[in-house]
# Entry
Amino acid sequence: MISGNEVSQEFVIGIDGGGTYCRAMLQDINGNILGTGEAGPANIMSNATQALTSIIQASEHAIVKSTVNVALSDIAVAAGLAGANIPQAKSAFLSLPMPFARLEVMSDLHAACLGAHNGQDGAMIICGTGSAGTVYQKGRFADKGGYGLNVGDNASAAWLGQSAIRHTLLAFDNIESRGLLFKRLTSHFDVTDPQTLIQEVSQFTAESYGQLAPIVVESFSQGCESAKKLLEQGGDYLSKLGKALHREAGQALPICFVGGLSNVYRPFLSSDVSSVLCDAAKPAQQGAIDFLKQTNSL
# Structure
């Protein structure tokens, strides 16, 4: 059993919490998957309270889908969460009242990397609502990126959506072309001038911008050069990120490339990065659970 705080749990939930979704996986102590659940965003840097709500909801959904009668107060939770790489955000999140018997928090990037490489040395790039990379070697992580949309998250869905808005504003000014991407975005917002578009996006979050990414991808698939240019910029950053991870490791470790935009960007990666891409051995939820088991008595 997983022990701690004078309690022992026969069940554990692994959490993969990102900027758009929170996924939960309930297991017994022998590793048998009993149920899975899903809820909304779980980025603890963006909104810690919302993240906790999503974790609880996803966990409850996993329990409902299982055949066991167990309360959250009897379960150990291992959570890989977006924003947990920022110490202040992690500390603020852990100060909230928790309904679980035990909660261990790590970054979603680390959980995904451990799961992808089954605990062995390897690298990971995530490109979803946000973007980040890490290399795991000899029991230590070295992270790159993951700084949030205001100052980073290059190539991410949020970056792609925000870049598309910038392109549209420049097109209104006749600096960029008024091609398909411009037409699709102005139609999406039903706007005919830049002032109205600015008003529409004035309260946008990273998640809001991320919801515009499919418009860029669809415009590219229909031959839009402006959309292609944005994807090339994103692919160039991701290639440089992969090379930086290799330099950090001192060797070309396998890279697992995941996230909602991973398949979109694969054709835009440099050959030295695309040649070492590998599939994930296990999901991030399992990576978080395995880490909990390795660092606690069973």
Notes: Residues 131 and 201 are 21 Å apart (CA to CA).
